[in-house]
Amino acid sequence: MSKKTSRPRNKIDLQRVYKSAGQPDRKQIKAWVDAALAGCGQGHHCVVRIVDLPESAELNQQYRHKQGPTNILSFPFDWPEGMNDLNDDGRIYLGDLVVCAPVVEKEAFEQNKALEHHWAHIVIHGVLHLMGYDHIDEAEAERMESKEIAILETLHISNPYIEVIN
Question: What is the Cα–Cα distance from 90 to 146, expressed in whole angstroms?
């Protein structure tokens, strides 16, 4: 009888250095990461770090040369030339996501969006950055937004780019 081998599942390392009500749990974040990576055919690994305003602002200044905190920062991992891009456990290491909870919470409120849905969008947005998507020019932005909308639709979350008016 042969032993069935399966591809490694995705793995997240969650670092919660800032806590607030309404933050997603590990299971929710993992589901969103899985949704963003669906169809990739290989297990992936990333870090999701939830931070406060000062840490986000410091990282945004240091790495993007922009003032103030931002909702998410993505730090794709670049394997040194000649090295295998798989971890010891067979997963591809994508990099790190740094999510500023207070910014995500404020945006959800200001945009009249369900907090959980906005968290899902931001995490998926970050994972797509780790996968090489970007929104620097209009064509890239449309491609990335279309991908985000399609992924969110699989989670029964409406298009985040449509303004909600009450």
Answer: 30
